Amino acid sequence: MNYRRAAFLVSVGLILASTGCRNSQQPDDRVLVAASIAPLADFTRQIGADKVHVVTIVPGSANPHTFEITPDIISRCSKARVLVLNGIGLEFWAGKLASTLQNPDVIIITTAQGIAVLEDDDHAQGNPHVWLDPVYAKLQVQAISDALVKADPPHASLYRQNTTHYLQKLDVLHAQITEEVSTWRQREFICFHPSWNYFANRYGLVQAAVIEKRPGFEPNPREMAELIELARRLQVRAIFAEKQFPAKISETIAAESAAQVIALDPLGQDGEDFSYEDLIRYNVRQMATAMK
Ligand SMILES: [Zn+2]
Known about the structure:
Largest sheet: 4 strands, parallel
Oligomer: single chain
Strand order of the largest sheet: 2-1-3-4
Number of helices: 10
Distance between the termini: 20 Å
Number of strands: 8
Strand content: 5-15%
CATH class of the largest domain: Alpha Beta
CATH architecture of the largest domain: 3-Layer(aba) Sandwich
Order of helices and strands: HEHEHEHEHHEHEHEHEH
Radius of gyration: 20 Å
CATH superfamily of the largest domain: Nitrogenase molybdenum iron protein domain
CATH topology of the largest domain: Rossmann fold
Bound molecules: zinc ion
Helix content: 40-55%
């Protein structure tokens, strides 16, 4: 996983875009797609290949639950022909963005539609982190495929072919994770933010506790003592942390128990070489360091 390089490429891309160098000589007939997060952007590129140009809205360094849409993003998305959203409340800013889109025929899709939503206290509209389960991700890929076919019928057969190929790759990914997780000795984990519920359900892991019980919540001393007691009693070895959230409380619990803080990334930093498959494999490798 080469995040530094990806971040560098994103920076270069932004500079080129903002100085207007890119494609300034000839009209760009690619389908402009705005995707809310990097995994959905990658799905779109896997299907659309060189027929699409994808703008990612939420940067990988941001907490998507508190992300504020910027004038720069609004202007980069204004001519989008497809807006790809996750849904389940992740894009609380979608209405504001949709009202600024200039293409009257824009197709807006919520790719998590139809997935059985898990409820928790951190997410008012249910847990939106469905993309971290590769089996649910396949439904999101199919939704994006259908939208591209609708937006750009002349390339329908290419999109369908690429979709079939990519869905097969996600099947392989799912099979590999199933096999890998079956070798782990530990099933329980504690997490700072509940991003891994769908993943855990899919692969038989158990979320023993969530540190952040409500958005922005910090446990009081009594709750901290309970978390430490739980970690000790279950002999939890992994506390899942994410760079989009503060790490200090996770580190305190780890220091008082046998657990270690495992740095995970549920979002990824979008760029030309960003890959959802790599992102998931990175996270599984990180989990394995404590749970295997
Ligand atoms: Zn969340």
